[in-house]
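Technical note accompanying the year-one report. For the benefit of new consortium partners, we illustrate the data format agreed upon in the data management plan: each record pairs a sequence with a structure-token string. No post-processing was applied to the example shown here.
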Amino acid sequence: MNKKSMLYLSTAAFVITVLLVVIFSIPPKVANPRLLTRANMEAIAYFMSDYASTHNDTLPSLESGELLQSSLTDYHLNMAYFIDPASKRQYTCNQHYSRARLRDIRNRRDTALMYQSHATQDGKRYVLFATFDQREVTAAEWANIKIVSRIDH
């Protein structure tokens, strides 16, 4: 290789190195907390559904996020799934349905198993239902869901 070729190669390597440093030093865009909440609840719902199907249609422990996580250890969900990215608090489990049989839940479509502890600024919150669906509900919908789900607070 002649000197000119060596110069081009070393210049190209330098430029590529600088570009890589610049690209990887830019902080990643912070994800939308609502999308993360939805993704977390979808994952939890999927694994709760699988748990119920392998445990004679019985729900896992809903006494707390830690006990729910412990019940779902076979699925390797880390505790981050149980933390609301918007409020940085644990999702609230509906203890009334801890280890309940699905057939004993009258209105599964409107019965909350887990939900965001605090509504967002617009009054909405994500709720995971006994059908293993999750959706964002308004304050008015939440008032009815609390009654159906036997949530006191």
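Partners are asked to follow this layout when depositing records. The mean pLDDT is 85.
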